[in-house]
């Protein structure tokens, strides 16, 4: 059965991303487009579009042209939008890089993407320069430092050209002919749960399509103020927050990192109405005592994506903050959104990632036979629509393994749809724990663990077992008193016998990616190393 959501189809124009995003910018004029949450710096819509043109002209003068790759290695700040759209205006491709990467990881991405230029921030400059040399980057740029809204210009002597020097042009550059369906505009890298991260080729049409689809969901308007705390190097932050936000004419407040009290202060100070989050932040908002110090009457909606959100956690956060929570689902390879909660609160099903977005089809297939399944049958989630990537960069085999001949993208996620077409994500196919032939979803056990009043965070991994094949082990972060035995009893009274957790280990922090996904492979690898030491 192929599922289609209740949203009406949307028209997707055949245009490049920058004219689409800034179609209404002239009318917005002096309205703040971007605010640096740390310093209070403001960039208006008029200033933003002017800066984009000036930087584009300067890059063109340096020989940057259509099809060239420009790497952005930076946490969130207003200039991110300037760099991205200056590159897009020239028909170039922005390769977004995680600023937490090591020099070696940065070098790999720069070399794999074929980047010509790079921009970074002063705090990352040393490792960026090392990686740039290894990858033969032609020129590196560095954003200025800002302190309390006052610019502290960087100098060329710092090992890179000040990005602000690119604003000194007249803003004139030749118009570039762009084929939206064929020409790439973004090259983010997948999270790399297996092997090295892969470059995801996204066209202008992919991103424009997904923004049109999101507009069709009608969950925010020009009157909203958004917070951009999720990283813009990740597709969620880049498209759903930054570009869709600018397309909608909102004001976006940027933060370079998530720190709970700073986040709460920023929400309050700038009267933020809509926040895009990931489950770990929702967890903090629902459980941390400091939240009570910061009333947030202006926050209307939280939109949560990137990983499944437990029903109990959803309800707890909604009750505490007095706002709606909408869930979405997608991945880097889908630009990213394929599913979202319905518009009407009465139609939302807790624990569900929602229904398919406009112009999107979804099906569930049997993991072994490939047979298309009906409602309430678990299998692999497959999606099809205009937001599906062009493919993986220089990896035709990986592309063919992900997108089949009928253009269905196989997500690798396990889920099901109920009779009303609401989708529920159970887990990653490769992360399922195989216990005596039974499949045990770690995310389900994590959801149970998080209902324990003494637990602030948790992760579950498979542990090899001679008799069962694999058994679940829990890593737990405590916020109160609880023994391993108490936790085992608590969980195992609430799940089927084959899902029982067999051991608990207390740790200080659960390793997670920048998008909030649990890095199970880190815990699995550490467990394997420990087992080796025990044997020797």
What's this model, at a glance?
By secondary structure, the chain is an alpha/beta fold.
Outline the structure in words:
With 536 residues, this protein is an alpha/beta fold. Helices cover 29% and strands 24% of the residues. The protein has 15 helices and 29 strands. The radius of gyration is 23 Å and the shape is globular. The mean pLDDT is 92. The longest helix has 17 residues, at 45-61. The strands form seven sheets. The protein has a nine-stranded mixed sheet with strand order 3-2-14-13-15-16-17-18-19, with helices on both faces. A five-stranded antiparallel sheet has the order 1-20-21-23-24. Among the domains are: 23-29 and 45-177, Rossmann fold, CATH 3.40.50.980; 432-535, GMP Synthetase, Chain A, domain 3, CATH 3.30.300.30.
Can you tag this structure with a few keywords?
536 residues, alpha/beta, Rossmann fold, GMP Synthetase, Chain A, domain 3, nine-stranded mixed beta sheet, 29 strands, 29% helix
- The whole-angstrom Rg is 23 Å
Query: What average pLDDT do the residues reach?
Result: 92
Distance between the termini: 52 Å
Q: Class of the domain at 23-29 and 45-177 in CATH?
A: Alpha Beta
- Say what the CATH topology of the domain at 23-29 and 45-177 is: Rossmann fold
Low-confidence stretches: none
Report the major sheet. 9 strands, mixed
Shape: globular
What fraction of the residues are assigned to beta strands by DSSP? 15-25%
Query: Helicity, in percent?
Result: 25-40%
Strand arrangement across the biggest beta sheet: 3-2-14-13-15-16-17-18-19
Secondary structure category: alpha/beta
Oligomeric state of shown chains: single chain
Secondary structure tally: strands:
29
Number of helices: 15
Looking at the overall shape, the CATH architecture of the domain at 23-29 and 45-177 is: 3-Layer(aba) Sandwich
